[in-house]
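Researcher: For the record, we're logging two predictions in this thread. I'll number them. Prediction 1 follows.
Model: Prediction 1, sequence and structure:
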Amino acid sequence: MITAKIIDNIWATRKADCLNGLKFMQAEIIGGGIDTGKKIIVVDTISAGIGDRVVVTTGSSARRMLGNDNIPVDAVVVGIIDEDCEFE
């Protein structure tokens, strides 16, 4: 799983039938490491908004969240981060 910030909506005028009804968003990875700043397209099933920090799952786990292992999706928002937590 990775942490990211939702930065924009993605509009598709045409897409595969199996993707109809899914909301696409552009997210920027913020979790640190070599991928920080990388932009990815995610499917949002929990109504995250632009500016929200989110938890994203990728790969086969993302497809499982949508209930279809054959759907061509690689990243799905699975949580919205409400606040920063500091651990001692």
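Researcher: Logged. Prediction 2.
Model: Prediction 2, sequence and structure:
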Amino acid sequence: MEGRKKKERGTDGFLIFLVLLLVVCGLIFLYSTSAYNGRVKFHDSAYYFKKQLFATSLGLMGMYLVSFMDYHFLVKMAPFFYGVSLVLSLAVLLFGEEYNGSKRWLSLGPLSFQPSEFSKVAVILLLAWMIIRGKEENRGILYMAGRMMILLPVVGLVGTNNLSTAVIILGIGVILIFVSNPRYLPFVGIGAGGIVFIAIFLGVASYRLERLAIWRDPEAYEKGFQTIQGLYAIGSGGIFGKGLGSSLQKLGFVPEAQNDMIFSIICEETGLTGACLVILLFGLLIWRLMVTATHAPDLCGSLIAAGIMAHMAIQVILNIAVVTNTIPNTGITLPFISYGGTSVLFLLGEMGIALSVSRQVKG
């Protein structure tokens, strides 16, 4: 009975609260941002909101069910999940649907989804599986390079049409290997190799080099329109914003404002204050995942929580950096807030895995 009480104290209520708060805020901001586009394109101002609400409902049910699963079982299935992610990523290249110039979706009848979102989860579980099976004394530069090489097939397949997700997967790999290794010097070599790989990857496609040019001078290119309008939205919001629902830039000036650029509309409607509060929520969520990783009952749980933390941190940083034109446009969504059913579904699934780890923390 005492052991059971200890296990129950491990359930992270604060993590659940943060996830639910982000989900609710995301739905509110999404409705405000997408109402105009929904009305113009589909004659329904709640079109995007209803689709996102449906995906979020499924995701919350999935999070609840996954939180009661033993994460060790999921890790044992990691090679299978990784294999499925490779097959789905290859299917995207062969049969994928193209939208806004990017082929990232697979369609099954009326439903469509992005396999790259599943690949992120599969990579976290696969790396945890590989690391716990390895011997600690053998974790040198060759060990780390070998583990990163295993990720290259999915990185290559996903990165063909989705460079940002490929960067996230590489980032997750580096952070998990870093967490599992007591030595720091080998990461200098890993970092140098990563820079060379990204440079080659950027150079093999002209549109990626064009993005770099647009980033340096968005006013000189027609495709820099979205970036410029996003910056106008951020600047016009001031300290406290124009008020929820009062954005002007979402009225067709920022293309597809409910997707990658939703943070700019948040800045316009709620100002610097609202933007900082959103960043604070993400910061608290990342901190809570770090706490879960630190207090996990074993290395496997620590690696899973650290991988989910890495995914969340990298994606938030990349999205906000793109919106503020700190880095070139990469087409990455803001977790829980940007429109995307597949994204929110798998993000909530990841939160369920993190809760599964926290449930086994001894009080």
